[in-house]
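Standup notes
- DV: blocked on the single-chain target, sequence here:
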Amino acid sequence: MSENPIINSHPDSENNIERNFDALNQSSDFQQMEQSKLSLLKPNFKRAKVAQLFVWAVMAIEILSVISSYLQFRLLKDFENGEEVTELMIASNDTREQWMGISYTVLFIISGFTFIMWFRRAYYNLSIRTSAVHDHSWAAGSWFVPFLNLIRPYRIMMELSSKTSQLINLRTTQFTHSNSTLIGIWWTLWILGNFGGNLLMRETLSAETVEELLQSTSVAIGVSAFMIPVSIVTVLMIQSYAQKEELLTKLESTSNPI
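- DV (later): unblocked, structure below
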């Protein structure tokens, strides 16, 4: 009497079925783990928009500062050349310059705060998606540590761009670059701008004579003019990374995790 082939199946066939079943379970578990991890991501696109808005606001103040400083320079030149300069003209100039200084300080602080909020959230999201070099708190803290603030924010921004580009390239055939050149330009301009700001502060605090006031005003015009392209490049950098982060979020929501 012949054996039933269904009941007496080959052992290798049973092993293959078990292996496939285990693989499916492992794949399902991995996908659940990935989905659970991605659920910890926090939205960051709105923060990027707010950060850009206040960078533009700072740039607008810089443009007005160039105009205000130029008016002060002309007033000082008139005084130096012996032309009539009334007390009212001096008081009006001082009031305008004070308001420009106050407005710039307030907007710069708010802009710095909104930028760091966006920057920290971006690094937090990266640390959820993949391994990050530093704890995400350093994306905020590194800006306030002397000497460390000269290099670590730049390295974190480079890491953000590079690793996010890699994650995008794993999910799409369209190659995405890391924008390292843009980040390098941004950081170089930022460092030079801060150096110029420190120079301006020293010139302003030490200026007493008309000649020294003219020199400090000239430095103020130069620094404010220089910070205009710094603002533009900063906005471009934020836009570039925000678009990458948004694209990666969409790819993660529409495709199976790798």
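- Follow-up: The chain has one domain: 42-254.
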